[in-house]
Each structure stands twice: as structure tokens, then as C-alpha cells.
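[job 4417] fold queue: 2 targets
>>> target A
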Amino acid sequence: MCIFIVYTIRRTAFIMWYERRENKMNLYIKQRVFSWGDKFSVYDEAGFEKYYVEGEIFTWGKKLHLYDLQGNELAFIRQEIFTFLPKYHVSRNGIEVAEIVKEFTFFKHEYSVNGLGWQVHGDFWDHEYEITSNGQTIAAVSKEWLTWGDTYEIRFAAGVDEITALSVVLVIDACIAAERN
């Protein structure tokens, strides 16, 4: 038992060292189970809270705010209402940086991130999808099963703007949640 624990700790430390060496970053989104409205915490690999997300309630269309731990707004996400397919806008410092639009497809879900040239594709029912740019994966998302509340792991490629990519992931989660309800 002791050898297994030491092996696990060393293996985890090696993986974290290797990913830092490659300048890769992992974040984890944990949805709060008993909360009024949308509330998420975003954690780093070490388990420390890095960001938090709060949604506005009683509004037309979904609105989410991404904050750092000092309470500074890093991104604002708003849903455009009265559209045929879901459409969201991401703003940073009052400037729109991306428009996420669900593509019209029959058998699979795909999203375009206008303004950045990104595409989102994968198995959304199993919460396994990728964000790509020019065919290169810049972020991959997977759901951790058997956890209290929804927990997602986001693996970023080196040099990716994690705030904008995290905002795209939050939009996809909002679209999936709307389809479930």
C-alpha cells in the first residue's frame, strides 16, 4: 500500500512537471450543486480556486460573468435571443472578442467561434470535445464522471489564451444544459 501511494505521488508530480515544462495548463470546472442560478468554480491542477463564474438570474437569455479571485471581471458572456440556432457573445474589457454559433447539422454538434477562427467539435452527449484552430487542437474538454456536481477537465495547448478558451467552454456547457432541459 505504501509503495502504491509513493508511486502515485511521484507519477502525478512527474506528469505535472512534464506539462509545465511543455507550458501546458489544465483547469477544472466544478459546478456548485445547490446554488441559485449558475455558479461555477474553476480550479488549477493543484486544486486551488483560480476563477469563479456567476450567472445572472431573471434575464432574457443567459448571461455569465467570469471573475478572478479579487473580483475583477475577466469576461462577460451573453446569449443573443430570438435566433434560430444558439448564439453567444464573449466580451473582455467591454470589447467583443468572439461570437459562438451552433452550426446547423443533422447528426452531430458543431460550433464556430467567429472572430477567432476556432471550431468546436466532438461528442457533446458524453462531454468529450475539442476546440481547434486551423486543424490544431488548442483545448480539449472531458467530463469527470462519478463526481458530486458536474466536473470538467480542460487541457490547454501551450500559448492559448485560457480566459477566452474557458469562455468558449462555458458557452458549450450552457448550450448542452439548455438542450437537456
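>>> target B
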Amino acid sequence: MDSVLLVVATTIGRLRGAAPREARIVYEAMNSPSVSKPGRKMYRGLRTDDTVSIDDARVLLQQHGIGSVATTYDTGAQALRALSDALVDDSKVAIVPVEGGHAVVAAVDSRSHTVRFDHSYPAAAVSGSLPRELSFDGFVSSWGAARFGLVVAELAGETASPPKPWTTLGPRREAARRRGVVK
């Protein structure tokens, strides 16, 4: 699954208490208009190289009653201060771009000089057990390459309806072929 969609599901789970299934979040992205690519849907599917933009992710979060604020910072010091402030509040989730993807930050440990991520960390970037960790310097270097982008998400109200009930999907193409299509 696209790292941004994984971050969306993780954020919903942390703030709402239960993460949506992969099929649901993929369906919502495939059936919601993109704000970053006008005239297209947010996502073209799991069998493509398509990715979801962080702006589209914020719309998906909004559909689940989660508001978010996206900010970029000029310096690592400003960004780390904002990240630390967000992590102090359990009602907020901090999302950052790292290693060619996005991840939810679980903690910044100033004693051991590490940054920990939950399971949303891009799998191709590291190996090892969860939660994943980066050295402070490695994190700041990777994060700085993305202009110290930070999205802070928190509950905003009631959830909106997804585009259509994802559980009432029509038959897949494979099933339609088995039954035969009448022309």
C-alpha cells in the first residue's frame, strides 16, 4: 500500500480507536477526486506506481472527522520544536515525509538521540523490528530534504460519509468474466 495511505489509516486508528481496513482506505482514495491532480481520482490502485499526495491524504482524513494543519519550516530547530509540541499532546498525530515516503512519528527521544516511528514507516527504508527508529541526525537530514514538512492531525468532529459504501462494491472484472458478459 502507498505510504501516504498507510499513514492515513494509522492516523485514523490512533485518533478514532480503530484503523480502517486496507480495502476501505484504498477504495476511498480510488473514488475521491484529487485536490492535487484536478480531473483525476486520488489513487489509481494497488497495481500501479501511483502515489497519493499529502494534500489528498488530508482530504481523506477530513472525511473521517480529522482536521489537519500542514506546515513547512525553514530550519530544523523550528521544525523539531513544532514536532515536539505536537507529540506532547496525545490528541494529536504528527506526520512527516521521510525516506521517500511519509510516516507517523511515535516519539522523539532526546536522551538516546533517536526518532521512533510507528508501523507506518516506509518498509523499504529500514529493516528490523517495530517501532522503527532513526538516529536524530539521520532523521533531520531526511526530513530536511523534504523542507521540514509537518502535518499535525487531530479530531475535528463527526466523520463524513465515504464516497460510496465501499462494502457494496460490484463484482470484480474477474468475476464478471466467469459469468459471461451479455453484449
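[job 4417] complete. Note on B: The chain has a mean pLDDT of 85.
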